[in-house]
Structure prediction request, 765 residues.
Amino acid sequence: MSKNAQVSNRAFMHKIIPYRYCYEEAGMIETENGVYTRTYKISPPDEAVKGSYHSKMTRMQMENILQKLAENFTFEFTIRNCRMDKEEYLSKVMIPEKGNEDAYHHLRTLYNRVLQENCDIGHNNFTREVYLTLAVEADTSDMALEHFVGAEQWLEEVFQSLYGFRIQAMELAERLELLYDIYHPDSGAAKFGSKVDYDGNGFSIKSMQRMKMDTKDTIAPERYECKARDYMRVGSFYARTFFINSIPECVPDSVLLDLASVSSNSILSVHYQSVDQELGFKVAAKMVRENTEVKNIPIRDTVSDRKKHRMQRQERNIREDEDEYFYRTALNLFKQAKAKNQTAIQAAFIITLFAESLEELNRDSSLLYLSASKYVCQIRCLDLQQNEGFQSILPLGNLKVDVRRMFSVEQMATMQPLSIQGIFEKVRTFYGLNAINDNFVFMDRANFPTAMIAGVTGSGKTTSVKREATNTLLSTRDDVVILARHPEEYLAYVEKLHGQMLYGFSPDIFDKDGNYNLNSEKCILQKIFLEAYLTSKVGFHQQRLLPDALQEYYRQAEREAELLCNCDSMNEALIYAKEHPVELQLFVKTLENFRFAADHLSGNHRLVVMGYEKEDELLVNLDYLWNHAVQSKKKNRTVWIFVDSIDELIYSTTCSDYLISLLERAEMLKVPITLVVQDAVHIVTNQKAVIEFDYLLNKIRYFKLLSLGPVERKKFIERLNISQQLIPYFVDRGPGEGILITPSANIAVNDRFEEKDNEFYKLFH
Prediction:
């Protein structure tokens, strides 16, 4: 290359790298004249965080952070995915096999083999980094530095309040290295600073000065081409930059992280700028007013209308374009923000995908569009603005494209740039592949103690129970108990996993631990259980009774439960019933076919399947398992309870009340209870059952919805606010295909593997 070509190339690189000057001691970069920036790396807390993820609490804390930042700075969050060595990645997600020579050692090997065989299907082996860049206008660099230093204490405090996240200011060399890595996406690129290693000690400003180079020379890529309309070349990689054109008001917390996950080599940057609400309101109102044509149309529906010459005001938009939509949306937002006393923010969402080939880039771009449609977001490619878009994703706080949209702080707090859910995940296990981008779906179910699985016949509900139970047995030392309406479906599974089958289990319904009701008197929950027990045992709710007669039965069950709830054993209850036969008519009736044996779980098996035939058996066994789980917690052991199926307990008010009360306590004690709904369509078409079902859904934090029919599907869509784009993923799907819904994420999942010779999946058939 000639000297003139080198000079020309250097001038071009200096032009496309969007900053003016660097300040080594302050770690600042001046992006525009008088605009100074500092970048901070945000890291999760060092120690494990106790408790579980609470979406509302997180949003409130994030809202406080955004409000504080918007009052003092223009700022940018940058989410960067970096490719990780495959073996290193697998070592982090596989279940350790060494030192676990127990009954499940071989199964761990099979589980890990599934991860190894399917790792390359999607973009899995990457690590994620999050940066915050603050920008401030100042007359001098010293004044800017003073502003940044003055904010450091409250910056640390507000992020510490978010479950202990840490924020650390980056030195200039660290910021330059980050920029170098972005401009050199190839993992085989030379190490940062190698161009200016004058004294053999790596990068330094002195080495750079001795070699008559500047900071832009140290980070400039070898190749940077912007010849195409919708992509560019950065080094040996292809890159395409998009922006999010619109985001609906209601989205899950994980929307940004989900969009960033379509590629293991991507950057998503969100630029924030507060808005003068009064000025913004006036401008938006003026633009809407100018684009509104008002006419008075005569009303001629009746003779009276014509006689009185009544008129109707009619408004029509003169132009129907993107600008009109923007101003109307902004006007409504300013009204809402003013009513709620919130700050309005202009935000821009920029995403850049990197790929080694154009084919790979096009494939990842399609996945991005699919992922966005799941949230009803509109993604657009920055056609003819790829260079400006790329400059905008850099952690410099320097937005080069006019793609801002109006949001309230409340709306922006919903879209989390930090992987907050991950800090609560202690044991993440494999749940299948993301049906949209083929990435692994991992989850720590212990964070969502209450769960529900629903689907039509043949959709894989029982298989899902086996999958989740197996994940628990392989990754923890916890116990698993499955209550099965059809225990024969679990015979082969129990044998393969060295478990135990129990039939006709009939414990003493009065023998309860002192902490059975957790922090309150045990008779409180005992009374709720006894009401449900009397209802299910006598079965009056299944009879065709007049409403008044049915209610009288319920009142009788309540009175008898009140009398019996203080009994400590069945023998004591029998003696009391003999002395008060009139007051305990329902209880006496339950003794006609009474069968009682002082059974207890032996504790010799970590997996137990308990079969039941009737509603009252299910209720008694479930209550016994809850008491067993309370006792196990005292010994620092957790019992996972799976109920297959729960339908029978939804058709009576007392059984439903008991179940809801149990779920509330399970959430408090962190005892995972998974309910399987076998016939959801019958429940939602039953006038009484659907009311109880609505109450029950409020207590569930994790849903696995497999293929569902139109009637019951409508109920779940309405109650869980499922987006239209997710609906196809649980309509007429194969076994194991559906969606997972948690407070922080909605995921289309595929756990259907066709290979019949796969030893791991043979466990579940």
Q: What stands out?
A: The first strand starts at residue 21 and ends at 23.
